[in-house]
Structure formats: structure tokens, C-alpha cells
Amino acid sequence: MEEEIMLEEEQITELLDAKQYHKLKEILSEMNEADIAAILAEIPEDKLPLVYRILPKELAAEVFVNMDSDAQEILIRAFSDTELREVLDELYVDDAVDVIEEMPATVVKRILMHTDPEVRKSINEILKYPEDSAGSLMTIEYVDLKKYMTVEDAFTRIRRTGVDKETIYVCYVTDENRKLLGLVTVKDLLLNEYSKKMFEIMETNVICVNTLDDKEDVADKFQKYDMMAVPVVDQEHRLVGIITFDDAMDVLQDENTEDIEKMAAITPTDKPYLKMSVIDTWKTRFPWLLLLMVSAAFTGKIIQSFESALQAQIVLTSFIPMLMDTGGNCGGQASVTIIRSLSLGDIEYSDVFKVIWKEFRVAFLCGITLAVVNFAKLMLFDKVGVMVSLTVCLTMIMTIIFAKFVGSTLPILAKRLGFDPAVMASPFITTIVDAISLIVYFNIAGLILKI
Amino acid sequence: MEEEIMLEEEQITELLDAKQYHKLKEILSEMNEADIAAILAEIPEDKLPLVYRILPKELAAEVFVNMDSDAQEILIRAFSDTELREVLDELYVDDAVDVIEEMPATVVKRILMHTDPEVRKSINEILKYPEDSAGSLMTIEYVDLKKYMTVEDAFTRIRRTGVDKETIYVCYVTDENRKLLGLVTVKDLLLNEYSKKMFEIMETNVICVNTLDDKEDVADKFQKYDMMAVPVVDQEHRLVGIITFDDAMDVLQDENTEDIEKMAAITPTDKPYLKMSVIDTWKTRFPWLLLLMVSAAFTGKIIQSFESALQAQIVLTSFIPMLMDTGGNCGGQASVTIIRSLSLGDIEYSDVFKVIWKEFRVAFLCGITLAVVNFAKLMLFDKVGVMVSLTVCLTMIMTIIFAKFVGSTLPILAKRLGFDPAVMASPFITTIVDAISLIVYFNIAGLILKI
Questions:
Q1: Is B134 part of a structural domain of the chain?
Q2: Interval A110-141: pLDDT, tens
Q3: What is the chain B residue with the closest CA to A308?
Q4: Complex ipTM > 0.90
Q5: Residue B375 sits at the chain A interface (C-beta within 8 Å)
Q6: Is residue B101 part of a domain?
């Protein structure tokens, strides 16, 4: 697949250099818009407008939607006013909003100037919704029907207006105040008599979302209810737009990326890695590193306060990394499992005791088995003596139990307190577990080795 | 939302206890199948068949698909042969396959015995495909059209057969050997004249997948091309089934869970957390912990070999956790960023030098800024002397540069070698970076502190 695109890219550069525009148009017209956008991302900036202009008009708009914002900006700056208007006319309102959100103010002004007044009003409406809300995600291009329309009326309406709608397969029945009454799918329309009225065939128990709902909740609803589109209503239950499954899929993927970044102690961004400047990347990483570094300093303090014990048994120092790492890994496993389960809805706050009990038993099993292997290794290979081996292995069991406890409860607690549980992943858990493991270590050493 | 379901659940238990089955049926009939399944998961096992039987027949089958396999098994065991047949008749083939895949052999036998012979053949076909392949995911219930059919013929066919199809909105045009020729959407049908023929309006440039393609690639295609369904073809390009967006969304979510688990050094499973036994959970975690523990032992060896240096300057010990943790966190940030970018297709192998150069600059910035803060802290609060502070801060800068290098290159290398890059996340990177940071630390200490 990758190979295929690479080949076509070379071919296109060749045709471009040979000025064989007609041939180029022929090839591009046969391709999928997402693939063309991927190729345009690779060709030199100055040739971008040239190739773009070769595309048939309708395909051009579809390719435009699939390009990243940098490429879009280059094109918009190269467009004549007429060209800009032509592209804008082909865009769905939600796509237009996506484009605008990424552009500098001057470009936004130019875009809005060349948009149809009706559409401009809608764009401005959508821009007013909070960034991560359902309202910011929706499109206003849906098919609306009235309750006394017949199936035949509905088909007539779809045929007349459907070409500009993002989906025609789910239609919404509203009353005179735009209040949402029900939904009718095209499947319903096709499988019913022409004379049936909407109110007879519509589904009235409609899953919908509010304009101010978080987009993550919207994606979760798609996931749960397997819908093709979801209607977006305002506080008065008036239908204002719809969100289609492809947008929900993008949200799902973005939210996953965000969670993964948070789990690695990175401030989430929606920019692709290679598009971010070094300074911006640094900004997403440095604050967390600083916070974690300062927290880790406390662990150092613990070692300092046991300095004399260490000096008496310097061999103990060499097991610190293993104990800290194992604790961190155990805590990380537990926290990531719980964070993911919370986000998938597999567990909730009320399961906290079930989780603790389960993690305790898993920790006990992991602790015993790792300790046994470790004890054998210490006695047979490292030959460090029974008492030191015992100290290390007991510490290991205790540390693992603490680590799994901390790792599994902190994310649940964070969620309960309204924070994002994803932050309570390996880096933070490791820092906490490090301190605990050292305190346990030195105390057990004190008891067993009498230092 | 959560609140709402809780309320209904209590209500249902009450009605059940009061034997108000009629009222119960009324309430349940108004609810969404996914919500009913969620509620049934909470009621006592022995009451499950009772409540299930209250549901209207068609809704019952939809609820059945939404339940987890344990509940499905309970029901199947409680069903009479007639009931079983009724449910099976309502299932799409891909859903039936999903159910069967999770059942013990005896239940599978009983299910297949009561399936329509035609469907049984299809189920057996699908069961033959490898577990994670497109073939195992597809359904065979699609609308197929012929190239000389008119729009009117197509509508007739959809009206006649559409009720049992998983989607009717995308129809596939095949030749007499079932070879895929093109696709026609219902939108195309609605917006064209009744007399138009399929070959005039069909899209011939069809994105399709092969039966043996990995389901992850299938999900990526949905993500990239915003499709409602994708046709599945065999090696001879014959159409054998379709996969719909809702299944692709589930795959996407499963793949994300798998990646996240791998990044935390857990063997992925598809069982929800609370459904797994303690032993099974232990099995997913222990091997990785053991591997990492053994690797961490090498870090201990490094400390041992510098024991005399440490004894001369015992204060150095107290900075080991901070240096190791910071290194691990920096490496983790880089590796997770790269793993995710690889999986989203934002970077590929050919970008490896761009990545290294970028991470080098980010690491340098992070290193310098963290070292400055740390130096100030060491001099002002810890009062450890210039030379020791210098040793710690220089080590920090070097460690961060190494950590970001290792963290960013290993996932790319793993992918290049055909391994899953997700394994090269924090736990492994931390273990490697720990060793590097200690070697750097003791060498710099040797140079600066002359120990």
C-alpha cells in the first residue's frame, strides 16, 4: 500500500517536470481524495497550487478537506477570490469551521469575506461553541422532515436538497419550533409504503447530544450505540445540527492520543509530531519533567537520611535500581489498566473495593513469584548472603503490594475528584512508589540486618 | 447519564420483585438495546432469563448482541430450542460468529444445530479465517446489484431484500463471477433518474480490503477514507462480504487498548478488567516484570562496580533516583510520542534522521533548563558544593540526551524489524536508560571529583 503511493508520487513529479498536465489530470482524477492529499503533502510548496488547479473542481474541494492546515493555508494564499469562493461553496459547514480554526486572523477574514452570508452566519454560530464541545463539531447540513409528511414527500425532499447534505441516511423530524420529534432512516423510508406518514414510522426514542456536551462523551455514545449520526440539540431541545460517524471516529482517535500522551507525562497537542517546533515540543514536556524531578528529590532525601545504614552495608545500594524499577513497573501496569478500564466504562467509582481486592491478590502473586526468582538469583549468582537476600526479597513483595495499591487507587480517586485519571500513570506512580520502596527497604534492612 | 441508568435499574428490580411484568415490559420496550444490556449485566444471574423473555422478540435479539459473552452463555443455556432458533434468526452472521467465538464447544454445537443450513455454511466459512483478519470481521449480508440493473431495479431489490442487510446504504455491483465491479450508494440512487443503469452511475475506484488483511489495517482505512462500509474481497477479487463502520470503530478502540497495554508492559487481552481471574491477570503481567527485573539487575552490577567511588562520596547515592527517574521520564516521553506517531502514520522509517535531530534539540533544551533549576536547588537548598552539583547537572544533561535518543530510535527500529513498536515504551526504555545514566554519572564523577 505504502509502496503504491510512493510510486505514484514519483510518477506525478515526473509528469509535472515534463509539463504533461493533461496526463496528470487523468491519473489524479482516478485517485481517492485522501491519497491525493497525502501526495500533495510531499511535493514542493511552490508546485502545490499548480497541481491543485489541475484537479477537477469537485474533487479539488474534497482533496482540500483532507489536507493539513499548512497546505491549506498555502493554497488559500495562492487562490484568486473566485477560486476561493469555488472551494468554499463545496465545503460542508463543519469542514469550513475546521479550516478556519487553524488559520491566522488575516486568512480567516478573507475566507469569511468570500463565504455566502447564510453560511457565514452558521460558521460564526459554530465558532462560538467551546472548542471541545459537540457544538463545535457538528454540521448544520442535515435533512429535516415534518411529522405529517408522507414517505413520498420525504423522498421528494431528499432528492431536492440531499446533494448538499452530509448524510441523507438519517433524517430528523422536527416541529414548527425546530424541536426534535424523532428520526427516520432511509431504510425505513424504503421499506414502507409511499403513503405512510412520518409520525407513523419515526423512531421517537432518539439518542441525542447537547451542544455543550464534551466531544469525548459524543464519541463514547457512537461507540456504545453504533449510530451513523447523532442529532445535536440546544437547551430547549431544538435541533441545531448533526455529528456524523466519521467525525466521531476522528474524535475517538484524538482522545486516545491525548490519553496516551498524558500517561507519558506530556501535555497533549493536536499537532503531528514533525509539524511541531522544537520549542513547542519542549513546552509540552518540560513542566512535567520539572515537577517529577522535584518530586524525585524527596526520594533522594530518604536515601540521605539512611546514609549511615548504606555506608554500613554498601551492597544494599546496588539493589535500589531493581527495586525501584520493579515497583514502578508494577504500579504502572496497575494504573494503566485502571485508567483504560475507566475510560472504556468497564469500571467505575463503586468498583473501587473490588479493584483493590483484586490488585492485592495479583500483587501478592506477582510479589511471591518475582521474589522467589530473585532469591534464587541472589543466592546462586550474586552470592550476597541469606540475610541481604531476604531483605531484598521481602522489600520486593511489600513494594509490589504498595505499588499495585497506589497504581490502582489513584486513577479512580483522580476521576472521583474530577481530574483526568490519565495523569495518574507510570511517571507519577513511579515517583511515589520510589519513595515508598526505599522507606520499606531501609526499614526492613534495619530489622533484618540490624543496621 | 450514569444516574439515569442507575435509577432505571433499581426501578426494574423493584418491578421484578413485585412481579409487575407488564409494566416492566412497557418500560424496557422504550429503552435502547445497549442500555438494556447494561442493566441486564447488573441483575442477578437467575433472574436474567426471566427479564430477557419479557422483551419484545426483535428488541430481544438486539439486546442479546449487546450483552457480554458470560450473559449470552447463561441465556443460551436457559433457552428452549425454539427460543434459541428465534434469536439466531434475528442475528446478522457477523454477530453470530462473534457469539460463537466466545462459547464453549458444547454451546457452539447446539447453536450450529439450530441455525439455518445456509447461514451455518456462512458461519463456518467465516470461522475459518484467521482471528484478526478482515474475513473474521465481515458480514455476508450486503446488497449486491448487477451492472445492467436500472435505478428502479435497484430500489426494488433493496425493498425486497434490504430488511435483512446490515447496511443498505452502500450497494455493491458484481459480475456473474461475483467479481467486484463498483459501488453505488443509496444517495446516488436517490439523486439519479429511475432509468439510469448501474454501470453509468457506479463508482469504479473502490477502496476494498482482502479477507486476510489484518483488522488493524481495516480500521486504519476507515479512519483514512471516512467510509461507511468497506467491501471484503478474496484473492480473485470476488466479493465475499462487507465490514461496516461500527465494527471498524470497535476494532480501532480494541487496537488502542492493546497498544496502551503493551506500552505498560502488559500482555494484551480482550477481556474486561473485572471479568479476568487473578491468575489470568497475573499471567499478563508477570513475564514482563520478570524480564524487566532481570534486566534491571545489570544496573545493580554497574553500581557494584563503582562501589568504592560511592563509598568515598556517599552523597552521590542520594541523587541516583532523581537521575534515573528523569532519564526514564524523558525516554518515556520520546518513545510514546514516536510510537503513537508511527501508529497514526505521522512518521515512518525514512523520517528517522529528522526524528533524531529533533529529539536531540528538544533533549538539549530540556537538559539545560532542568539542569539550571537543579543546580540552583543543589547550591541553595541542599548545599552540596559546586563540584558535586556540577557532576549531577552534567550527568542530567547527558542522560536526557541519551534517553531521548534511545526512546525515539528504538520504536522506529522495532517497527523496521517487524516487531510491534509499542513494546519499546517506558518500561524497557527506563531499564536501558537507567544503566546508561549510571555509567555516565560515575564517569563524570570520576572526572570532576577525582574518585
A1: no
A2: 888 888 888 888 888 888 888 889 998 898 88
A3: B314
A4: no
A5: no
A6: yes
